[in-house]
Predict the structure.
Amino acid sequence: MDRVRFAIVGCGGMGGRHLLGLKELHDSGMGNVELVAACDLRRDNAEHLADEAERLLGRRPGVYTDMAEMVARIPDLQAVDITTEGGSHHRVACAAFDLGLHVLVEKPMGITVRACNQILAAQARAGKVLSVAENYRRDPMNRLTRALLDADAIGTPYLYMDISSGSGNRIVITPWRHMKHMGGMLLDGGVHNADLMLYFMGDVREVYAQTRLWEKTRYRPDDIGGLKSFYERWAAEMPASIQATAEDTLVSVLNFSNGALGQWTQSYAGHGQGSGLRVIYGSKGSMTPGGSRNGVPPVLHLDGAGEIRGDALLELAPSYHLDDISARLYGTDSTSATRPAAYQMPFPDADRKLLAIENYEFADCILRGTNPEVDGRVGRRAVAICYASFESGVLNRPVTLDEIEAEATGRYEADVNAHYGL
Ligand SMILES: NC(=O)c1ccc[n+]([C@@H]2O[C@H](COP(=O)([O-])OP(=O)(O)OC[C@H]3O[C@@H](n4cnc5c(N)ncnc54)[C@H](O)[C@@H]3O)[C@@H](O)[C@H]2O)c1
């Protein structure tokens, strides 16, 4: 099989997770990429990822701190997988396109809508593939949720509710995630929620929102929970406390293009008991969507039929069939390989399988000349849902996604753009 020669740029927590995804892809027998370089502004991080790659894949990629030098030394390099912090995605992605490379970029696609627009312009100039690494929608349980919606299982969608709160005054994963010029958690985490809205419900037309920054001082957590193994190498670098500049709480009302309403509340300042609720109401019933990376299947409640879960869901979702790579990684046995109704595995296993799938799709698009599922326009739309909400909070009026994408208004993001000279 042809293999795309590519480099990981950004060798922190997520760079390491992408490497685990490459190992998973390699072991699946469907590997279509070859990791030839690791690049990071911090040489120690690039060296560490290269060491890990040698251990996992049996071959040590070259180590670089400068992308232009990397391309000069590896003339047949075809693509980069950008796993730097969101604040640098536009710089790295635009430089990669200008160097003639295909780009897979972690979410959020860009740090602002303007940053996304610059990435799209650079892609158009280069004529290369741009894929945004949205992993949640690729989870088989989200694929099943979508197939149930496609089959009209709950009837006409009326209402989408996505409500969550937690984290109190703790630093979430890394300090940069609480800084406005790095997007804040409402972009860094919220863009996943926005992408799932688009995936389940279709386009969003307009939002009205309010935001708050409650926890201005945040403290180092005793434990970062399930992500600990990915970030423990840098744990000693985390200060005891930081001053947050990004909003931590959002309440947003959404108008979907299909006429449905949405209610998106997300807070990273939730003290006490954390909570989370995602549910879709329609003209025939309601559905709790499946989980992301936990194997929890969707649950339906239909008028007159009560609760429907497990294998019974499959009868209501005839279009549910995983693609070859997803079936290879998640299928339990030959009969249910393309239609698993649930799966059971630890979070790190499910996590790296999704990253394997998004890497596989990216390379496949390069090899076949096809367009990825989450291309630049979809990636920008998810960022636009977040920024339309932030903008609405500043302007105190509803904001359409089209005006945000066209940069007809951008007061909230103006100082972020100024920070990067955008
Ligand atoms: N999809 C998911 O589930 C998921 C989960 C975690 C993180 N992410 C995303 O991955 C990205 C990275 O997050 P992280 O937690 O790994 O951050 P991190 O701080 O752990 O690592 C970022 C790395 O990028 C390097 N870097 C920064 N600017 C660079 C540049 N211009 N060129 C080369 N290297 C550069 C840093 O030195 C660091 O090693 C973010 O966009 C984040 O949103 C996605």
In short: The chain has a mean pLDDT of 96. The radius of gyration is 21 Å. Residues 82 and 105 are 5 Å apart (CA to CA). Residues 4-134+370-374 form a domain with the Rossmann fold fold (CATH 3.40.50.720).
